[in-house]
Amino acid sequence: MTRIDSSSLLQMRSAILQQNAALQKAAQKPAEQAPIAGPGAAGPQAPANFTKAFGDALSAVNELQAKAGAASEAYERGETTDIAAVMLQREQANLGFQATLQVRNKLLAAYKDIMSMPV
């Protein structure tokens, strides 16, 4: 079995942090380009950007989960013996899912707060 040393863990951590920074930068670009519309002005630009960004994020999480499932199945069939790579892919998929779940929870909490505001 392959041993995981601290340098490889630090490399994985830095790769995840770089991906996170890239995702945050990509998420901020549409917000900087399009001005925020007021409550009376419902422009087609703002919902499309949010919908596209949210859809892209969900498809990325789905892709991570599909890759993790395929890696697990390949390990179970004996096609690969690198359990560390399989576990890494499964953990990446789990992290993506947990992040998506937390975003959903925050969106639901914000929606409930807005709906409970007096008019």
TrEMBL record:
Please give the chief subcellular localization of this protein: other
Which branch of life, at top level? Answer: Bacteria
**GO terms for biological process, alphabetical:** bacterial-type flagellum-dependent cell motility
List the InterPro entries hit by this protein, alphabetically. FliE
Location comes to:
Bacterial flagellum basal body
Record key words, sorted = Bacterial flagellum, Cell projection, Cilium, Flagellum
Region annotation (Disordered) maps to: 27-48
Instruction: Kindly give the Pfam families that the UniProt entry links to this protein.
Output: FliE
Task: Give GO terms: molecular function aspect only.
Answer: cytoskeletal motor activity; structural molecule activity
Q: Which GO terms describe its cellular component?
A: bacterial-type flagellum basal body
Q: Which HAMAP family match?
A: FliE (MF_00724)
- PANTHER family, alphabetized: FLAGELLAR HOOK-BASAL BODY COMPLEX PROTEIN FLIE (PTHR34653:SF1), PTHR34653
Question: What family does this belong to?
Answer: Belongs to the FliE family.
Q: Can you say what this protein is called?
A: Flagellar hook-basal body complex protein FliE
Question: What organism does the record attribute this protein to?
Answer: Edaphosphingomonas haloaromaticamans
